[in-house]
Please model this.
Amino acid sequence: MTSQVRGVQLARLLGQWHALPGRRRSPDYAALAAAVRGLLADGRLPLGVRLPAERELAEALRISRTTVTAAYRQLRETGHLASRRGAGSWTMLPGTHRVASTGLWTPLDDRDMIDLGVAALAAPPELVPAAHAAVEDLPRYLSGAGYHPTGIIELREAVARAYTARGLPTSAEQIMVTSGTQHALDLVLRLALAPGGNVLVESPTYPNALAALAARRARISTHGLAVDGPGWDADLLLGSVRQTRPKLAYLIPEFQNPTGHLMPAELRERLVATAHAAGTDLVIDESFVDLPLDGTPLPPPTAVFDRHSRVISIGGMSKPYWGGLRIGWVRASAPQVQRLAAARVGVDMASPVLDQLVAVHLLAQAPAIVAARRDQLVTQRDALLDVLAERLPDWRVEVPRGGVTLWAELDGPISSALSRAAEEVGVRLAPGPRFGLDGTLERFLRLPFTLPAADLVEAVGRLAAIRYDLDRGAGRPRWREPAVIA
Model:
């Protein structure tokens, strides 16, 4: 089912559309059409959404219907709108251009490459002692077969205690250990989504989640996030759930990847209630929940508001600890966990016992480890913000309240071109279109602050040098295989 944006909602997204560059040289209809194209280009207005009727939008914007009619006509002429008499008008892009989020290859190691495509920290110093302690614990498991489809009990209890400490009472029976958060998402999709099922995601969102959904041949609809403010427009998000009634909605409420937004508690509660009424299951990705910065208070977990087993939470060790430790988990109802374990047999049977024991020892030291990680991230984030302000002042960046990434709005639709050119100067980037669908988000770039401050400063210096070369058309970058984005 196609979602629809109401006149008042589109008017709010358009904002001060009269103030666009060139306003004095353009008639009202051209300025309005340009504003709608801008919303499509940065992903705030999804593709395939039905726009309000001309009269409705004219009333919301307090302009003449003739102006809206002319703007819609121009959008059809430029390939940004498709209309059918009696049925309405839908957003699109010229030439049905699409940018896929699949087809990722692991790059060869390059010591001179500054990799800003992966948003993950190096291992903490506590990892090696935890590994030694895990080896000492291992003998008591060696007399068994080693298969624990839901995870060893010590780790499940540790994860359950962490949820309980956040205000969400949880038992070990509600936890399933997986081989990373991506594996957790894949298992949930196998259980809860039939091939071709309808799924709602944020735009932008995590590229590997889009890849997992594509593998299930999901029909994806999007909710665009604003660059500033809380990110989510409550009316648009809840309206999308009511109108499209997706089977699943995949959301990242805590320090959303890549924008860093934090969903307010009120919207979480309304979202759960709306999802229940629409028959939608919520898959809540909590990968960054341990990383609030600057003392930012966390709202209650989304599952706190769940009374009908509509919320499935996934998380893991990759972001606060280390990506090489492939430990993730699912928190759901006990019956759902058992069904997930049954579905898992066709994938990998169980997670490695030794890795799980390492995770147990790290979680026992979680307060100290995570506090040090937060301090490290604040220092690196501030270094990145300072050098961006100095070297690329035309880029717009909101200071994230947590997580590990900045979502930069560039000074032009150059994200992919900049990323290709950056490879030539030893900087690997994750361009904006990788975080969305259909070629949008070219004005945006994700910049993680997980590398040492000196590397971040050096990387931005290189980007600043090639940014201005792009305007002059200097050089022709060679095409490379796309790198892993995490």
Summary: The mean pLDDT is 89. The first strand starts at residue 81 and ends at 84. DSSP finds 15 helices and 15 strands in the chain. The radius of gyration is 23 Å.
